[in-house]
Amino acid sequence: MLVYRTGGLFVWKKGELMIEAQYFWINIVFLAIGTIVIRGSIIAVSDKIQISDRAKEVFSYIPAAILPAFVAPAVFFHQGSVDWVMGKERLIVLILAFVVCFKTRSTVVTIATGLLALYLMTQVFGV
C-alpha cells in the first residue's frame, strides 16, 4: 500500500486523500466533549429557567425539520449503481416508503418496506 505524506493532517491512501488516524480521533474526542458540555449545560440550567408554552411548541417542530436534512443528501446526492433506474434507486425507494407510510401509518412497516425495497433493487435486481 502506497502512502504519500502531504505534510499536514491528510495522507494519500489508495488514490484518495484521507485524514490521519490520530487527527481523526482527536476530532472525535473534542466533538464528544463539546456535545457533553452543551447538553450538560442545558440540563444544569433547566431548573433555573422557565420555558414558555410557545417556545415548547416551536421546539416540538425541530425533529420534523431535521429529518429531511438527514434524508435529502442520502437520496439526492448518492451516486446510484442500478442502471435501469438511472442510478436513482433511493429516490424510488423514498417514494415507495412515503406511499407505504401514508397508507399504513406504521413506522416499523415503512422502515421494513424501504429497507427491503432498497436491498432488492440494489442487490437482487441491480445487476
Note down, in words, how this protein is organized:
Strand 1 and strand 2 (10-13) form a beta hairpin. This protein has helices at 21-45, 53-59, 62-76, 89-104, 107-124, and strands at 3-5, 10-13, 16-19. It has two domains: 1-49; 52-127, no CATH class. Strands 1-2-3 form a three-stranded antiparallel sheet. Helices cover 64% and strands 9% of the residues. The chain is flat, with a radius of gyration of 22 Å. It is built from five helices and three strands, in the order βββααααα. By secondary structure, the protein is mostly helical.
Structural class: mainly alpha
What is the H-and-E element order? Answer: EEEHHHHH
Number of strands: 3
Intertermini distance: 30 Å
β-strand amount: 5-15%
Number of helices: 5
Please tell me the overall pLDDT.
Answer: 84
**Main beta-sheet annotation:** 3 strands, antiparallel
- Gyration radius (Cα, Å) is 22 Å
Estimate nothing, just give the exact number of structural domains: 2
pLDDT < 50 runs, ≥5 residues: none
Assembly context of the chains: single chain
Please supply descriptive tags for the structure shown above.
127 residues; 2 domains; flat; mainly alpha
Short synopsis of the structure:
The protein has helices at 21-45, 53-59, 62-76, 89-104, 107-124, and strands spanning 3-5, 10-13, 16-19.
How are the secondary structure elements laid out?
Layout: E1 3-5, E2 10-13, E3 16-19, H1 21-45, H2 53-59, H3 62-76, H4 89-104, H5 107-124
Antiparallel strand pairs: 1-2, 2-3
Helix pairs in contact: 4-5
